Amino acid sequence: MLSRRGYSQELAEKARRENFPVASRLLPRRHRDHLMAVYGFARSVDDVGDEAHPDDRPRLLDAYEADLVRLYDGREPLLRPVRALARTVRECSIPAEPFHHLIEANRRDQSVTRYETFDDLLGYCSYAANPVGRLVLHVFGEVSGLRLALSDRVCSALQVIELCQDVGEDHRRGRVYLPEEDLRRAGCPPGHLAAATTSPPLRAVVAVQAARAAKLLGEGEAIVASLSGFARTAVAGYVAGGHATLAALAGGGYDVLGRAVRPRRPRLVAAWARVLMTTRSPDAALQRLSSA
User: Fold this and answer.
1) What angle do CA 54, 116, 46 make, to 5 degrees?
2) Name one Pfam family in it (predicted).
3) Torsion of CA 40, 43, 48, 51, to 10 degrees
4) Where exactly are the structural domains of the chain?
């Protein structure tokens, strides 16, 4: 078992591999600690759902579920990622539901391996990604109906972008997140996802998902304008990570099998500055969402 310091170092290394700054040093220590606690829980649950022996995953996910109940009942959690949440949950008044939804997303990963339509995929994102954005808003004390709606758009976009990057890795795990109807329409049989290089039909399907993610990101980006201070800085960084990764996907011709697609830091920093300077009115964004 890793020591507390070893766990923190391992978690920080995983955070550095994300598309966006999980807990930027531009933020005060208290915010960074809370964000890392939330990330540590989400990352640990994902690791169980992806990397534990398949026979062990249901039992381990049950253990996380039971430990969350223990935490919210005021008892001492047994698992380190849940124990690390205790101060964050208390100081930020975070409800249990988003954490339970993250566990449910990983339960679904054990039984649902294909998605017929993009809407079906967004249904998965509502459990796998959107709760994280809601948790971030709780960390900063910036929860509102408008912000939740915009945050869900951003988080779904970030999840779709990551799924585009990880097509090969997910296929090796027995999962295909690219919508089946899009694969059929493009003439992209399952064998294309197991190839060493990305075929033109598969690139076309990835490009379609990237365009959809860009639309979601554009709709949700106005959340930054609704925030101020450190919350604005942090959320702008997440949005910027999405833009920078979309640019990396496009720049690589949507080749997601032959190379690792990751945003370069200068591109991320430039996108971060742009988002902070140019975000649109959140009220206008809400009107567009209401009429959609």
Assistant:
1) 30
2) SQS_PSY
3) -130
4) 1-97, 112-292
Could you tell me how many helices (H) and strands (E) the chain has, helices first? 15, 0
Sheet strands (E) in the chain: none
Single-letter code of the amino acid located at 100:
H
Alpha-carbon torsion (266, 267, 270, 273), positive or negative: negative
pLDDT at 286: 56
Of 15-29, 225-239, 269-283, the range with the lowest mean pLDDT is 269-283
- Which is the CATH superfamily of the domain at 112-292? Farnesyl Diphosphate Synthase (1.10.600.10)
176 backbone dihedrals φ, ψ, rounded to 5°? -130, 110
DSSP string, 75-135: PPPSSHHHHTTHHHHHHHT--SHHHHHHHHHHHHHHH--B-SSHHHHHHHHHHHTHHHHHH
Residue 179, token pair as written in the block = 């919508």
Q: Quick check: helix, strand or coil at residue 5? A: helix
CA distance 254 to 147: 31
Amino acid identity, position 118: F
**What does the pLDDT average to over 121-139?**
98
The pTM (predicted TM-score) of the whole model is 0.93
Give backbone dihedrals phi and psi of 237, rounded to 5 degrees, phi first.
Answer: -65, -40
User: Which tens digit of pLDDT belongs to each residue from 149-208?
Assistant: 999 999 999 999 999 999 999 999 999 999 999 999 999 998 999 999 999 999 999 999
Residue 254 has pLDDT above 60, yes or no: yes
What's residue 176's pLDDT? 97
Write down the pLDDT at residue 284: 60
